Amino acid sequence: MAKKRRQQNLDEKLRDSKTAIELLDILIEETMGGIEYCQSQLKKRDAASKAVQSTFEEILQRHESELRTLQRRRRRLQEIQENKKIPAKLKKQISALERDIILLGRSSWSGGSSTIRNRKRDLADLLEQVEICLNPPKRLKTVNDKFKVGESYSRQSVTRSYDSLIWQVLRAHFEFPSTTRSGSSKVVIAAALPAKEEYAAVKEMHFTKTLETLVNDAYEIVAELAEEMEEAFENTPESLQDSDIGQAREEAASQLESISADAPEVPDSLQEYKVIHFPSKSGKSRADRAGVAAGILRAAIGAVRQHLDPPPKLPRSERKSIDEFLVQLERDIDEIESVEFPGMYG
């Protein structure tokens, strides 16, 4: 009864929150409370049994994974709200969408899953607008006269002249029809496009990251997939949760959660090492996104091995740390690729 009342109080506090950040703060506090409770239970010497301990360890792992996700979303929102380059209207829309997505994810409404997907697509569009505000069209040295500013062209003709990555590298140089999403077949040139030689240099710079950032990107994808699969299982009707598809969803969520919860620390000597990684062309299914995460980790392994040939002078402890880091990345790649995404968008 007390647990039910506590849940009702939490739901009331969430509904009464004015902004997404306030809502996230409530959930972060609640999740930290759950972590502290599990830790206190695990410290008790008179724990009932290994099974009980194992249960608390699993719950603790879920709470820790959820906390990282909540904190990541809060940091992103905070950075957007504090940035003066982003219009106030856009900030308000993003906050409202984030709040809707979180509340819908906690509801038992049967139509919540499809509505969440639509809200997430809307949010992705708004975040693209944020990216343009923060990274306006680059001042380029050359101009490709084939594409005139202000005129409309097919996406295919632009991709054929450059490559499929141009939509990420020079996103702010294009305008998409307001009646459709960025998947429209037509685009308007908003700023001059460069010659192919300059584009190649800009692309290389765009996809150069520190090894630490690159590895974090991969595990963030895994964490997002874990969250989505957990939502998918929770939204599976109770009568189907013990079915093959229900169990497969739960297993996928558990696997992904375990991988993201145990993400390795990048060794000190490698954290700022610069890596160029061009993402592979892929679809938007969950299996495709898992493949992207695995591909990023493979690129990280390749970059580290290249950096170590010939081996630089390093303390034995650091070299051991690097070897263990590479072993874990390889193990996690195998784990990610073994995850099965049943049914919906897998």
Structural account:
The protein is mostly helical and 346 residues long. It folds into three domains: 2-134, no CATH class; 152-195, no CATH class; 207-338. It contains twelve helices and five strands. Helix 1 packs antiparallel against helix 2 (20-43) and helix 2 (20-43) packs antiparallel against helix 3 (50-82). It is globular. 21% of the residues are buried. The mean pLDDT is 85.
Indicate the mean pLDDT.
85
Radius of gyration from the CA trace? 23 Å
Count of domain modules: 3
The span between the termini is 38 Å
Secondary-structure element pattern, one letter each = HHHHHEHHEEHEHHEHH
Number of helices: 12
How would a crystallographer describe the biggest sheet? Answer: 3 strands, antiparallel
The 3D shape can be described as globular
Helix percentage: 55-70%
The tally of strands reads 5
Helical/strand content category:
mainly alpha
> What ranges have pLDDT less than 50 throughout 5 or more consecutive residues?
none
Strand content: under 5%
Please list the strands of the largest sheet in the order they lie side by side: 1-3-2
Keywords: Coiled coil
Coiled coil: 53-83
